[in-house]
From TrEMBL:
Name of protein: D-3-phosphoglycerate dehydrogenase
Known pathway: Amino-acid biosynthesis; L-serine biosynthesis; L-serine from 3-phospho-D-glycerate: step 1/3
Function of the protein: Catalyzes the reversible oxidation of 3-phospho-D-glycerate to 3-phosphonooxypyruvate, the first step of the phosphorylated L-serine biosynthesis pathway. Also catalyzes the reversible oxidation of 2-hydroxyglutarate to 2-oxoglutarate.
Keywords of the record: Amino-acid biosynthesis, NAD, Oxidoreductase, Serine biosynthesis
């Protein structure tokens, strides 16, 4: 059987796959290119950059499994895959800690203007006046989506003496209590939080959840973090909020359209915004973790053993 790996994944995962199958690795293929080759393969392994559209899926009569080396499966047309009997699996655990730690790092970098101060000192300046921040101690962190990453972010920020509240209609009070999060409704979270961090999947419900209407209900001087999915926010509304001073800071890792360019980056030149190019999962440990997990999943699926679908 043959596997197509359409994004860079750790060599450890590719090596595992090669023990069982013929493997071709060709990163960063556009859907129209993928359509031309997909019918040669029984399995497809992707990260988030590959869009596995309905057209890609329908171009294949041979594909049996799509493995996502990561959490979000919003780049895969799951209904189209299911209709063709193709198994879609992901690796929900492999990059949880990486994304958690990146969220904490982004929150602190934004709060203390670390990237801006670094840039300043690199330019030969000794400016101790322009980078005053605040303390997170004693502030309220509102977590939208108290799942794997949201709950771990909660634990870490509790250690920094933040109060953690959460909005997640799909978890129990008991689970929230276990991770020290007080569950509240969405509007209460918006009204009470000094910091808001989102950790939901991108779904119809969460699309543009952080929009102008939501921002209007937030505290003046709120700080926002998005290391989940770009589609969960309206970037223009957040940029407007920063410009008006309503939002004191934003830390953004993900974007509705990736890769982000100078032309479609609404945060360009905004001092109070810290940005990274979708680096939440970019640690050595996480990349090995997701590559190995996805390889085992694809091997199991193609060798007829039960797998956990996405
Ligand atoms: P998870 O499934 O463990 O947790 C998601 C939580 O969101 C769940 O508790 C769920 O109940 C909740 N939720 C779903 N719909 C909701 C809604 N409408 N309102 C409020 N809560 C809702 O997922 P996770 O592993 O914690 O991942 C969270 C997000 O982070 C995903 O979007 C994932 O793709 C993204 N992610 C990003 C990176 C990165 O590189 N930046 C890395 C890993 C994961
Ligand atoms: C994920 O959903 O796993 C992350 O966004 C990381 C990635 O796509 O590599």
């Amino acid at each position: 059987m043959k596997i197509f790996v359409s994004n860079d994944i750790s060599e450890k995962g590719v090596a595992l796959l090669r023990e069982h199958f013929d493997v071709d690795v060709m990163p960063n293929m556009k859907p129209e290119e993928l359509i031309k080759v997909i019918n040669n393969y029984d399995g497809l392994v992707t990260r988030s950059m590959t869009k596995v559209t309905k057209e890609v899926i329908e171009a294949s009569t041979r594909l049996k499994v799509i493995g996502r080396a990561g959490v979000g499966v919003d780049n895969i047309d799951i209904p189209a895959a299911t209709a063709k009997g193709i198994v879609v699996l992901n690796t929900p655990e492999g990059n949880t800690m990486a994304a958690t730690e990146h969220t904490v790092a982004m929150m602190m970098a934004m709060t203390r203007h670390i990237p801006q101060a670094h840039q300043s000192i690199q330019e030969g300046k000794w400016d101790r006046k322009s980078f005053d921040g605040i303390q997170v101690q004693g502030k309220t962190l509102g977590i939208i989506g108290v799942g794997r990453i949201g709950s771990r972010v909660a634990k870490r920020m509790q250690a920094m003496e933040m109060t953690t509240i959460g909005y997640d209609p799909y978890i129990t009070e008991e689970r929230a209590h276990q991770v020290g999060v007080e569950l509240v409704d969405f509007d209460t979270l918006l009204a009470k939080s000094d910091y808001i961090t989102i950790h939901t999947p991108l779904t119809k419900e969460t699309e543009k959840m952080l929009n102008a209407e939501a921002i209007a209900k937030m505290k003046d001087g709120v700080r926002i973090v998005n290391c989940a999915r770009g589609g969960c926010m309206d970037p223009e509304a957040i940029a407007e909020g920063v410009k008006s001073g309503k939002i004191a800071g934003a830390a953004i890792d993900v974007y509705p359209t990736e890769p982000l360019t100078k032309e479609n980056n609404p945060f360009l030149g905004l001092f109070n915004v810290v940005q990274t190019p979708h680096l939440g999962a970019s640690t050595i440990e996480a990349q090995i973790g997701v590559a190995v997990d996805v390889a085992y999943g694809v091997i199991d699926a193609l060798e007829g053993r039960p797998v956990m679908t996405a």
